[in-house]
Prior knowledge:
Oligomer: single chain
Strand order of the largest sheet: 1-2-4-3-5-6-11-12
CATH topology: Rossmann fold
Order of helices and strands: HEEEHEHEHEHEEEEHHEHEH
CATH superfamily: Alpha/Beta hydrolase fold, catalytic domain
Amino acid sequence: MKKTIFLLLLAVMAFSSCQAQKTTLAGPGGEIAYKVTLPDGFDTNTGHCPMVILMHGIFSSKDYIPMPQIAKGLVAAGIGSVRFDFNGHGKSEGRMQDMTIERELADARAVWDYVAGLPYVSAVGLLGHSQGGVVASMAAGRLALEGMAPAGMVLIAPGAVIKEACQGGKFFNARFDPKDPPEYVRCWGTMKLGREYLVSTQELDIYGTAASYGGPVLLLHGDRDGIVPMWCSEKYLQTYGQQAKLSVVEGENHTITRKRKVVVAHTVEFFKTVFGL
C-alpha cells in the first residue's frame, strides 16, 4: 500500500512538472527569467486582457520592491503583467559586469516580442523604475519608430542621471577616471560595473531616443529620493510635453518603501485609463 501511494505521488509530481508554465525565455545574452501575473480565473484560451511589462532598476530584480506590489495592484484591476530580470540580475543568465544599457534594451525587446505575440494580450504598456525607467523610455521610442508604440508608459524615478554619473567618474560609492575606467568598479563592495557600461553610458542619447514615443506617460517621483534627482523626471516631462504628467509623491524615497501604496494606486489608475477599463 505504501509503495502504491509513493508511486502515485511520483506520478503526480511528474505531471505537475510537465504542466508547469515556462519561466524563462531566450534573450540575446542568455535565458531571461520572468513571471506572468494574470487575473484569477483568467482563461488564456478564450479571454483577452491588457498587459504591462515591468522593468526593474540596476542591482535589483523582478522580485524586489516595487515590482511584485505593482503586479498585484494591476491584476486586481484586471490588468496582467510580465516582470523579468535583466541580464546579470536576479535569476537571468549573464554577468552583471557585462551589463550595458544596450544589452538591457535588447532584453526588453525580447520580452516585448514575447508578450506582444501572446494570443490573449489585447494591448501592452511599459513600466520602468530607476534604470529600468531609462530602458523603458528608450525602448518605447525605438518601438514607436517601428510602428509598435506601447499603449502607455509609467516611469518611476527614471534614472537618467546614470549618464552624468559615468561622465563624472562617480557611480554610487565607486570612483574612477571617466576617460579611462578600469575593467570594472565595485559598488558597495559586491556589485561590479564593467568598463563597457561606464564608457557606453556616457554617450547615451536618453532623452533624444525617448522623444520618439508619442503616447501617454505618467512620471512618478518621490520628493525624498536621494539617488535620482527630480530634474531627471522634469526633463522627461519637457521631452514628452502635453502627453506626460509628473506626480510628485510626498515623503517617498527612491526604493519605494515609504509611500508604496500611493505609487501603486497612481500606476493602476493610469493604466486603467490607458486601457479603457
